[in-house]
Amino acid sequence: MTPVLKWAGGKSQLLPAIQAMVPAGYGRYFEPFIGGASVLLALAPKNAVINDVNMQLINLYRQIKHSSGEIIDIINRLDAADCNKEYYYLMRDKYNLKITNNILDAECAALMIWLNKHCFNGLYRVNRKGVFNVPYNNKVRGKSIDEANIRAIGEYLNQADVSINCMDFEDACSEVKPGDFVYFDSPYVPESETADFTAYAQTGFGLSEHERLARLFKRLDKMGARLMLSNNDVDLVRSLYKDYHLTHLDVKRMINCDASRRTGKEVIVTNY
């Protein structure tokens, strides 16, 4: 199983390193910032809690679990027409109407996937009103999905015991017990002091949230949970997690529209 969305900060390229560092045994799996779900789909734990504050993203996973066939049918109908500029913005408006009216259904999930394949650089971004505002990428034709992959994800989410939540990351960890494994992949700390904090959700994720996340990490560590966290390899992250094991990795940032900025360094933090 592979992600159905291209997502900022996606972990597909880091999967070998992450998988090599996963504890040999653990209880329940928690991922409070699910994003594109590449780690979840690679590990396929039998008992998991996944979460995100992005309501449309969580709706996507809930709909794949309960209505994967309907999602596939809707996307295939969307793909049947040539996606010119007018068609793209018509579908973007339709998706945004669902966002503003809080309509979380299979069509909303299908539009999210389809727009992700036809928007500029596969970027998911909303403005302060929570409206998706990424422009068209000029992709006129082509399939937007791997049907077998979506069906496989749906089967996994149904067969395993996976809770799908939409809440604050701290609340999402309220049921963590000693021996459970928690993987944190929060919005990243900026690589430079002048950069803005990542804000893929309407609320954003700033310095106070990163400090709160570090405090949660320490509490769960003292409880006896097994913890892993990934982020940019920058001074703030190294400072917040200086008491833990740090593994430094080179990465490619393919979602950056500036080719000169498509390389970077990340760090994986573990408490074991």
* Overall pLDDT: 91
| Strand adjacency order, main sheet | 3-2-1-4-5-7-6
What Rg, in angstroms, do the CA atoms define?
Answer: 18 Å
Q: What characterizes the major β-sheet?
A: 7 strands, mixed
Distance between the termini: 27 Å
Name the CATH superfamily assignment of the largest domain. Vaccinia Virus protein VP39
What is the name of the CATH class of the largest domain?
A: Alpha Beta
Succession of helices and strands: HEHEHHHHEHEHEHEE
How would you describe the shape?
globular
Strand content: 5-15%
Fill in the CATH topology of the largest domain. Answer: Rossmann fold
In short:
It contains nine helices and seven strands. It is of the alpha/beta class and 272 residues long.
